[in-house]
Amino acid sequence: MLLYADVISKRLQYIINFIGNEISMESFRLTQDKDEFRNVTGSKINYSNERITDNECWIKPHSLLAENSIKEQTIACFEWNDSKAFFKTEGDFPFDIFATSFYLLSRYEEYLPHEKDMYGRYAHENSLTFRENFLNIPLVNQWLQVFKKVLKQQFPSFTAKDSSFKFQPTYDIDEAYSYKHKGWLRNAGGTVKDLLKRDWSKVSLRRRVLSNKIKDTYDSYEWMDELHQQYNLKPNYFFLVPEKNGQYDKNILPTNTAMQQLIKQHTEKYTVGIHPSWQSGDEHSFLGKEIKTLEGITGKTVTTSRQHFIRFTLPDTFRRLLSAGIKEDYSMGYGSINGFRASVASPFYWYDLAKEEQTELLLHPFCHMEANSFYEQKVSSQQALEEMLHYLNEVKKVNGTLITLWHNTFLGTDPFFAGWREIYQQFIKEASMFHFEKSGTT
Questions:
Q1: Which DSSP category does 252 fall into?
Q2: DSSP conformation class of 61
Q3: Which of 35, 98, 123, 352 would you call most buried, defined as having the most Cβ atoms within 10 angstroms of its Cβ?
Q4: Do 375 and 130 meet the contact criterion of CB atoms below 8 Å apart?
């Protein structure tokens, strides 16, 4: 596929690489030579202000991809194909699909001045996806499906890529146990708090766990393993391993033998990554220390991550991850609402907009976290299941990758999370059914 452009910028090269990989079996080749473009008889895209030949797919460009600065963009959304679009132009496609996709994937708006939420994160209320009410759909994938059909109709020789639906469950382990392995001081303090609140059921529960009469209420690991084995799933686990505890870092410390054993058990079966602590966001040297701690326990090089509390700032956080040897990150989602933060259900490389370059950090976007449903959206477990099934269906429609984020805490036996284990099991059954269909697994 030959693509002509008057200006071949790094932005254009980046988004063409992504789109080409998503929709085509052919590589997309860029040219600024009009004669070369005219002489090609096969499939070709004209990305310029004027039509060049009769047999071409012409997309008149928005200015975004030819720019090398970051500034407020005038965006007017309009209804298209039962959904939304923006950067309306002329040609054989009603909008500049390259510029719109780049705007959303690069998280352009997060580089502009914006309000922070209570945790110092980019507030989802700032986003175009939230304001224009398309946060709950993988809009970029939807656009690309239509674009692929347009190219196929116009160029019968165009070899379109047939992608398949994938399901990737992931887990953050930031509170490995509710009572066990926390030491007598933390448990004594917890008991005093429960007594002052007259929460006799919790006092009794703690006593029964610590006397080994029942399993720790956050210990859902064996149950999760059985679920993964039943449905042939290969999840990713992210462990919080801070050097010391803090207000938002409450896990069992990695010096604890039980914590080390838990991590090693998971390393033998699954991909284990780092869950950088809240403290590492303030004291940047902690990130490297935590990665080394996890590597020391697993005996393996750690190259995957997800930020604790989904706390990241562009471009600084992702640059630090790259410097620390992280190759893949699973933080692209919101820690305050469910949905598609980058409007996509496919992995993509992070584009450092401030440096104007594609990086080697591969981002895996998630669209649903149970903690958002419970703490932020304050819905019931049944409502959360309905929301998860919505995301399952939307991602299945575009043959994308569905990534969910859960915690062991919700999947244990703590009465505080009653009902959530059951709806997760029901969802896994539904998601795996489609996963099996596409992969051919029986």
A1: P
A2: P
A3: 98
A4: no
